[in-house]
Amino acid sequence: MRRLFPVTDQTPSAEVPGRGPGVDREWTFDELADAYAYPASVRGAAGPGAAPGAGTAVDSGAVAEPGAVVEPAAGGRPWLRANMVSTLDGAAQYDGLSQPISSAADMRIFGTLRGLADVVVVGAETVRLEQYRPARTRQAFAARRAAAGQAPAPAIAVVSAGLNLDFSLPLFSEPLVPTLLVTGAEAPADRVRAAEKAGVEVLIAGEGPGADPARTVRVLAERGFVRLLTEGGPRLLGQFVAAGVLDELCLTLSPALTAGPAQRIAAGPGPAVPERFVLVSLLEQDGFLFARYRRA
User: Fold this and answer.
1) Cα–Cα distance, 14 to 17 (Å, whole number)
2) Domains in the chain, please, with CATH?
């Protein structure tokens, strides 16, 4: 992996051989965690299972990558980032799944982003299609999470209106950190009862059957989850975009063409006007580009 942007030193002699930003090699998880650190002012109690002193350490122990444009979250508000993959022709999936257009390096970044997050916010359809399991603890991030007062692994928060989910699956029955359901006040009462009977906590973040995207962020933040990561799918990401609550997009550009009817990374009604994001960093490995954008 090599850094293409920002270029912080054009002088080869200033770099340690084999370790400079332009050198093509596999980055360590520590280097990836530094490159993808949340803004230093994002604060919170890190949710249930957090270590004593949660909320006092705020940046996962990481140092922002050299030259990065660090825009702190105003007033310590929550920070919502998305992680998505797209082909050259804009497909977010192939045959309904993201794995065929991913890579080993993409999965390392996927693991890093989870290793830094308090909670992973995901739509119910993506849970079903991708057969989600509980997030696992990763030794590579254990010290950072402990220093930041975070639980050993991020919680999974499933956003659903119909709650048409199998609550006997490991995601709900065997999580290291309890899985949450986020829905609306008019969600089917029998499905809410089924979830609660299975020991799943249901959070209400909307007046109708489904969750309101802005309220979803606020409700999770009230629980101490302020380092938010969404992995989609496209419909949920589109809702966050339309509501104007997405702070950051981590986008993998896969060197593949699929054609076909696959969705883009964000679907559904858009905002009144396109929202500008600025490029913070760009990495490359094996022809895959790993871009990080923040709200302008």
Assistant:
1) 9
2) 78-295 (3.40.430.10)
